[in-house]
Sequence to fold (353 residues):
Amino acid sequence: MTSKQEVILSGIRPTGRLHYGNYFGAMKSFIDLQEKGHQCFYFIADYHALTTVTERVDILQQTIDMLRTYVACGLDPVRSVIYRQSDLPCTAELALLLGMITNIGHLERGTTYKDKMSKLAESSQGGEGNPLSYGLLGYPVLMAADILIVRANQVPVGDDQRQHVEMAIDIAQKFNHRFGETLSIPRAVERNALRLPGLDGAAKMGKSDNNTLDLLDDPKTVLKKIKGVQTTTDPEPLDTESNDPDMVIPKMPYSVGALYRLLSLLAPEDVYLDFVGKYRRGEKFYGTLKTTLAEYVSKFNEPIIEGFNAPNNTPDSIKDFLHENAKKVTPVGLETVESCRQAMGIGRSLYRA
Ligand code: TRP
Fold:
């Protein structure tokens, strides 16, 4: 091999059912990276899921459902190491150590934290001081621990997580500067991702917005959801000659754009081009567009639904590979934490190693 094998890490929040936005925004690039033969670590950020809960949620169940879908889509838990964050609990120890060198002002400027803060201010629930949790403020520190613990050198993330990866880089550099070269410095890499609009015409498809098309939706549900997409607006002239989805779709109303985007991803090119032509000519075609698209979506979902229900893809088989993969990452994780303890002066654990 000429180039050093890259160590790639990315985290996924356990959300249960997965939708097309998740697929084209993240899963597809995870599968592509695995196919390129890189060493990939993908973990389920279940500790992170706890930063926003206000009541008990069955995070384990959501993790298992999500992983069954990932496996059904082609992510391979033998080639890629897929584990749960909480099965590598030394991540929490590393986060504690990194927290000692992380500046609070820096965390308060984090976008996720700032957004939550301003939402609170809007609803004027101020009252008893700042009600946000220590865990939420520390979200980026935990994320830095996730990345640094496996000595990842590439972290593929979407735009919304970029700032967090940059914070991880800062923390690692500060650690090395203060305590000597201990941590590998990662870099953020752009994820080859698309942001899909929601079926309701919102800019983004998102679980909490209830506007998703799901990978496990059966043909009836698919048709119902697609038929419900609002297409009453008359086509506006497309003031571009190009048929490239990236040029054409932004000129359409969001909800219509959502249909065209899905068509461009799932149907053969001539089908997509035919419907772009119809749009240009202002023909009446939304009915056929919807039934045609629904067929392609159902065709796409069919093997995923089958894979989800396959006899070798049960909750128990998911638990088995999680167990095996946790065993695989633990030595790397412990070695990183131990070397940080040593570098900071408390010395290695006396019972663990
Ligand atoms: N915060 C990420 C998200 O919401 C998930 C995540 C947690 C992550 N730790 C990470 C992503 C480490 C990349 C690297 O999408």
In short: The beta strands are 7-12, 39-44, 81-84, 154-157, 187-190. The radius of gyration is 23 Å.
